[in-house]
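Subject: 5-aminolevulinate synthase

B.,
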Amino acid sequence: MLDDELQAALDRRAAKGTLRQLTVYPTASTSVSSSSSSEQPLVDFSSNDYLSLATSSRVRADFAAIIASDSPLSAQLGSAGSRLLDGNSSVHEAVENDLTRHFASSTAGLLFNSGYEANVSLLSTLPQPKDVVIYDELVHASVHDGLRRSRVPAHLRIPFRHNSVDHLREILTRLVQDGTLTAGTSAAPGEQRNVWLAVESIYSMDGDACPLRALLDTLSQHVPQHRICAVVDEAHSTAVYGSRGRGLVNALGLQDDPRITARLMTFGKAWGASGAIVLCSKIARHYLINYARPLIFSTALGYPQLASILAAFRSVQDGSAEKRARATFGNARRLVDGLEGVIRSQSPAAKRTIALPPHLKPKQQAQLAVEADDDFVRWSMQQPSPIVPVLTSRARELAAYLRANGLLARPICYPTVPKGEDRVRICVHADNTKSDIDRLIDSVRSWVHADPSHVSTRTEVGRHTPPSPAHALAAKL
Ligand SMILES: Cc1ncc(COP(=O)(O)O)c(C=O)c1O
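Prediction pasted inline below.
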């Protein structure tokens, strides 16, 4: 029977410790009502809502006002079709235009239902069959999925070591030596390959920034400028970095660099909503409309989704999101400083130890410094990002211990991250208080120094065990 076969596969995963499960942990925002539950909400150190916009009362009020107004946004719920059929509307076009103008005055923009669909669309359609795609080994699954569907043959889809400018240079040198890339202009224009670079601005599991300018300059040393096509996924920098949340490319002053073919800004993380927009040339936009299957064959964003994007956009435009970003970066700095204290206090031979990744060492952070007129942009680039990975071989144990102490942070283990790089991924938010951050640091410290038997007891019978499954939530609704 099919179910037996499926169960056997799940059992194999469970035996390897890689089984995925849906969980509902009560945080202040996700508990529908804590009154009927003895569970205390957990403090959110897990979600991608870095600016706490998803729960902001101001944004929710703006959303309600948009929906209650006379605007066409309030006249319909679902979009009722793909953008190519009945799902397009003057509202979709107006939202798309306003967002495009905000992020990149000189390019075009195309809305997608999610960052996932946008990445799949970009990578599966734009690179041509003769092209080469070089991508950071840690790019998101959506880039891999897009590349798998692309017409670029497998041997011309080449990963480079995470953030390694040297490795990119090695790869390019080899491609020139073996004739895959023709140096100079000896090949006829039609035979010249475009060389694609796929990177993220801030990496989702490590929280480190891409050395984008150095990567682009390395490409320029081997490939004619008009053949360089970089795709920068700004999922974790949208609304957080750059002036008025325009992202890392903007913070680096590269927004008009012709080597950047597309930028992906997503609304599901710090923006607090869902959906995404691709910023690219008018021709690339038209090409995506013609060839991107996730766009062509899926119902367009609904009106409530557009309204939630617009509601957060008001806070992004008027600078209140930037104030929130200051709080988020301040929290990240406080956390990293505190964790460094924990690391100094631990014995290297102890059973339970933690480490921070190299990019969080103060000397490394200084390398991100940028020349920018904007005080916030300059300052933010010298802070740790909101994603702080705490490396430990006992990630599940540490996360369970934190949960038992009222703090929600997720263990991220192999195969989501490479073997030996298990971590608890801590995300800080604008609405985390200083005392929340200090409680987190104290809990990590007490886990590091705790008696092993004490830890296992706390984690097994912790106060904050996951609540019962969906029917409990349904009953509350
Ligand atoms: C780097 C990166 N790109 C793209 C995505 C997909 O974005 P979305 O959640 O909007 O589908 C994610 C989501 O986890 C991500 O981390």
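The chain has a mean pLDDT of 90.

T.
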